[in-house]
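Archive entry. Fields below.
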Amino acid sequence: MNVYLHKNAMHTKTEKQRQIIEAAIELIAEKSIQQLTIKNLAKKLGVTDGALYRHFNSKIDILLGILHMFQAEARENLEQVKKSRLPALQQFEDIFLYRLKYFTQRPAVAAVIFSESIFQNDVRLTRAVNEFLTMHEDTLRIIIERGIRKGEIRKGILIDETIYITIGSMRYLVTRWRLKGRDFDLYEKGVQLLGNLKELLKC
Amino acid sequence: MNVYLHKNAMHTKTEKQRQIIEAAIELIAEKSIQQLTIKNLAKKLGVTDGALYRHFNSKIDILLGILHMFQAEARENLEQVKKSRLPALQQFEDIFLYRLKYFTQRPAVAAVIFSESIFQNDVRLTRAVNEFLTMHEDTLRIIIERGIRKGEIRKGILIDETIYITIGSMRYLVTRWRLKGRDFDLYEKGVQLLGNLKELLKC
Amino acid sequence: MNVYLHKNAMHTKTEKQRQIIEAAIELIAEKSIQQLTIKNLAKKLGVTDGALYRHFNSKIDILLGILHMFQAEARENLEQVKKSRLPALQQFEDIFLYRLKYFTQRPAVAAVIFSESIFQNDVRLTRAVNEFLTMHEDTLRIIIERGIRKGEIRKGILIDETIYITIGSMRYLVTRWRLKGRDFDLYEKGVQLLGNLKELLKC
Amino acid sequence: MNVYLHKNAMHTKTEKQRQIIEAAIELIAEKSIQQLTIKNLAKKLGVTDGALYRHFNSKIDILLGILHMFQAEARENLEQVKKSRLPALQQFEDIFLYRLKYFTQRPAVAAVIFSESIFQNDVRLTRAVNEFLTMHEDTLRIIIERGIRKGEIRKGILIDETIYITIGSMRYLVTRWRLKGRDFDLYEKGVQLLGNLKELLKC
DNA sequence: GATGAATGAGGGTTCATTCAT
DNA sequence: GATGAATGAACCCTCATTCAT
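PREDICTED_STRUCTURE:
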């Protein structure tokens, strides 16, 4: 396989690329996204700095790799839930609890998704985060619309605002969890929060 | 005024310190928080790097200066609203709309407040952000409790979760606004969002 | 008094100059000679950096001031001993024990005298240290010569070498004392060392 | 060879590390230890500052590298002399003259060994100098004890004090040589001094 | 006499990236 | 594919010194 092809291809990662991304995620989880340097990453992988550049054109591409991985994984979950045809509020719950469980198991994911301020310098990174969020918003929009039509969600609610409320409250929960050093059970608190949200949204 | 005093005093900033903080805020607004370097800041002020160290002990202290300024300003607003004795939902609106107006006028404030991922390396910065958030949560808690007692807010709502919902949705609105390059009117959207929130919360 | 005169005059120090030198000595004793910066010194004196330059033309002049003070003080002791007409070996003891007592009381003096490596960059400082040492050597030479003539010190000893032996061993004692964090009684050990030296030198 | 290993290994230096240490020693000899800056050192080696950090973690580690080199070299000499089974006073001479010859050839060594006042800020450096001195003291102690037992050195002499006298006088000789700009023949004077010392110590 | 502000040169260090081998 | 070495730009910070007020 041509070396210059696979470095640019979006969704076909080589085994080595996957390893690097995996190591990067671990590094972020153990230390912080600020500690994700080429040097540290190479050390963790047991290779030299230069070696990484055989597999990625730049550090930004590694970060994009992480984001794409998350995105692919989230997309799959969203699609599945959409197809499930369960009641709207149940779908809600499925999406958010899945996400929280994922964050609990892999805190690095949260660290990356919540690093907009660090990504601000690069268009591609900003765009990737944007796409990630938009993807969730779009799915929620479909679910909410359907829920309203089916009488599962109270009328008189503006859809876009409801999206902000749900995503926003979940994000803030995660933010607090991270700032407080993960000293409470994210999933458990999420269940409570979702209960409240559902209470507010239902007819 | 003694030179060694003003560097440590928390809330008594010299004129020069205020100028530096102001320039830092502008710099963040124009470029990004990543571009807030001592060199850039000094250049913006038309002085040399070293000059800044007459007024602040470190770059972190400058960032703390910014945060403390916001905090002082926010605290004042929160206190005023608390004392106002308006209906709970009105107080809600006052707090959030004030905040959004502020962000609109000074986008740098949002940039700083939302930079947790950058601050993560420093305890003092993390603590300052934490205090800022906690301060808002505490005020909201008081308002919500009072609102429930007075029958202005629907019963059966968990207070903590309501706090997460309100703060979270406002934060997400700002996050979206920032990621989309401030291409919509934050205040206007905020009014809509608040309308929805109030609808959900009222009896 | 003309401001430009007193700054250059060698041995007539103003009260303020004496205060500054005193503070510098204290600073060295408390911290280390590396911590003797204009800023630290000014802070200790409760004035601003610039103020010091009213009294000394440069930091080097302050260091020279310290050295001159020591020199004057040592000269007085040496003269007194020389005049005392006590037996040579007794004079020996007087000089060295006086010095050790002085070092014990004012560790900063030792810190300065033993800072040749730091002074190496400046001719005047090197010269001052040189003069300090030469002064001691000259006095010892006179005492030893007299001691040999009077039959108090064994013949067949080369005078210069004896000087090196005595000064050197005392200096090394002080060096060890300093490197070991002053964890033994310098004076007491000095008495022992001198006993041995006298034993070696006497007829 | 792994890049992360060799930076921490104590006594196995890479070729490049040796080159850097060598350049540092030359720099100190030509200028002074105060001129040993990362920038000057890199310039001398014809590389950029950062390049040095591939080979040493910090400037202090470079200094430690120098000290360890000296220490290894001195240890070898001391061991050899100890094993030689020559008369005690001869062993004395061997040690000190070897040292002086070394200093004559490499004045930088003296500059570093006599830089305690500069090292005072760092524990590791202080410790290294301490070890260097202690190593010499320990060897001398063994030699002197043996000399006394064999009747080569006069009885009634306190061993520790004799150590101070010998090391101290040699050090002072070197100090004088350095302060006087190396304007006399260190080795020649050392022979004289040792002659005197031996005269004083022998039975 | 002292202050407050600034300078300018330099300090050690980090980091993404490149490239010959 | 990987290594080892280097680059160059940037980073935060320190310090002796100057000077208008």
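CURATOR_NOTE: The first helix of chain D runs from residue 3 to 6.
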